[in-house]
User: What shape does this take?
Amino acid sequence: MVLLFNVFIVLLTACNPFAPEPPAETVSAPQTAYREETPTWTARDDSAAPAPSQVDDPMCEATYPTDGPRGPGCLSGVLSCGDVLTATTQGGSEVYGAEFYGAMYCFPTYGDFNAAERVYALELPAGTLATLHLSSPCVELSIAVARWEQRESCPTAAHLIAECEGIAGVNAGTVGPIYAQRASRYLVSVDGPAGAEGPFSLQVDCRTTHGP
Assistant: This one.
């Protein structure tokens, strides 16, 4: 009798719609530790960047003769096809500046070009194409190639020069090809547009042709 009563109570409880529901299980999201950090700012040190005069190149550490021009006039020497010259503008002539390069339309000028320059005569046989390669890893230099047939003097801004090519303010640059239809003489000037002086190398490549 007692057993039947207990079964009745269990059934009554299970079927009672008003019986309270068991509490639902709650799932807690894992907690992530959060730490607010204050950003740290570090000033950039531009002194670590090498200046143009501090470029790691053997040419910048070498020493070169600084003798003045041998002449005539502003000339420091004579170039020919196939020559590779290494020198420095230090100790060169101080004849040419922005006025000359601008008047000859050698290149767009900037700066005053008040540094010393090296000027060389370049003799080209008839029917020659010449290309000049300038390398100046230590400072920015300029190169101008002007046709000038007079051997005893150097031109000025007052002279009439029909042909001049060049490039200004570079660490490496090429001028040409320059075509000499007949045997011709040119002046090659290596100068510093912003008063810079330093070492450079100059290479003259030529080939013979029957036309430009």
User: Anything to note?
Assistant: The two ends are 129 Å apart (CA to CA). The chain has three helices and nine strands. Residues 1-12, 36-54 have pLDDT under 50 and may be disordered. Helices lie at 2-15, 58-61, 98-103.
